[in-house]
Amino acid sequence: QVQLVESGGGLVPPGGSLRLSCAASGFIFSAYAMSWYRQAPGKKRELVATITSAGESTNYADAVKGRFTISRDNVKNTVDLQMSSLKPEDTAVYYCNALAVAGPFRLDYWGKGTLVTVSS
Fold first, then answer.
1. 3-state secondary structure of 25
2. CA–CA separation, 93 and 95 (whole Å)
3. Is the pLDDT score of 30 beyond 90?
4. Contact, 6 vs 94, CB < 8 A?
5. How far apart, in Å, are the Cα atoms of 11 and each of 32, 60, 79?
6. SS3 labels along 52-104
């Protein structure tokens, strides 16, 4: 079955770095755009970064531009989010998402999330 399993979350001080990883299985990973979303306490889930299926293009939320980098490995079926210069407002549960759209069909998968806490 389809699985997206996030890892790498934890407690990090402001200004620190963390690398999240998402391992995918059960679908054709290279056919899907992959994204990281986050949801802070009391807030809506928001898009953080997206990478196209072949990895040729990326897009970032303004709040993380220049600090976060998304990358993927279509052999290992993984997508990573390198986070640096972390701020307390980056504290959230981070979710991995896989999306494929073909005409009227939309295939959308989610992981269960990994918690990132930025605090001294």
1. strand
2. 7
3. yes
4. yes
5. 30, 23, 21
6. CCCCCCEEECCCCCCCEEEEEECCCCEEEEEECCCCHHHCEEEEEEEEEEECC
Residue with the two structure tokens 């490995």: 73
Spatial CA neighbour of 67 closest among 113, 117, 16, 21: 16
C-beta of residue 48 within 8 angstroms of C-beta of residue 61: yes
CA–CA separation, 88 and 51 (whole Å): 25
Predicted confidence (pLDDT) per residue in 48-102, tens digit: 999 999 999 999 999 999 999 999 999 999 999 999 999 999 999 999 999 998 8
Q: Which two tokens stand for residue 42?
A: 């009391």
Q: CA angle at residue 61 from 99 to 120, to 5 degrees? A: 115
